[in-house]
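The data are quoted verbatim for reference:
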Amino acid sequence: MLLRYAAAGQHKDMDTNDAYRQFLRNNRFRQNRNINFIMQQCVLVGPLVALGIKLGAFPYISYKSCAAATLLLIMLSLFDTLMVKRFSHLPHTTYLGLACLEITLILMSQMHMGIYITLFLVPFISLVYCEKRVYIITSFGCLLGMLLTTALSAPFQASFRNDMGAFQWFIGQFGGYLIEYGVMFLCGLALNRMICSHFKELYDTHMEADTEKRLREQVFELSNTDVLTSIANRNAFMTALAELSSGPHRKNVTVVQLDVDGLKQVNDTLGHAAGDIVIKAAAKCIAEVFSPYGRCFRTGGDEFVALLKIPHPSPDEFEALLESSCSACTELPEGIRLTISCGFASVAEHPEYDINELLKHADKEMYARKSEHHARV
């Protein structure tokens, strides 16, 4: 028994982990689209830089390099958009989108816009994926981008200095960037751990609340459902009566009392198993005829009640439909014919009655009908 419980617990943990992994995949799908949107906006970098050139804000940038950067960004954006549309759930699409953002920053640096440590913005953006591996791989790409950017910018920057060459400038600058990179990498790692832990805790809490809600709904459903016939039981019937007694729709209510004819004879001669089959068949026929107009309940062994939302029912018409449904029933034991007696009472016809008096009147009508039936089950 203990092994069975342990296995059940392990199975539940596996289901929870699988569900969380699916949550991360869905999150990747959403974030890949967000990154793609950012990448599409980066296409505007070229035109904005061109505007800055015209205003004299970027004296060392040419229109030619600006146009080349814009063309490259358009190509990257289109390629990333294609990947997102066709392979939005794949990790490769994630890395491609983040790499495109990193390349955008590298291009801005090569256009002499002073972009260096801002390269680490991309690893921080990758934290939204809640995956440690994505953060580490993106951080490594950022380090390579910083190395490449600093090396390529060294000759240009050293040309403004008389006290050092390009290599000395590269060593000094990259050494400083490396220290800042290390600090930000460790901070990002801590943030990643905190975010992932927090998201997992929120997800588990949500799943527990959702499971508890479903369990409550299932318990409520079971407590209000008849086990044998799967229609509403007496508990549900009493709740419905309480609602009708004070509800605004009371004037449109019709109560129908129903009773299976000859069930005792079936139980005595063929056994209770056969009687259960008859009860299930009767419930099916009753639900088929009356459910479109209200709710049906099994209130006792062979007793049923229907609460209809129609003020002026036609008893003869309903009885004909019920008789037709019973005649067409093929689930009965051989030699058994199903008949059901029913009595009607509506608020429209008896406005002076309360709900209990309506039930009594319908019950009286039902027994009057039963005495007229000569065919027995």
Remarks:
- The longest helix spans residues 166-223.
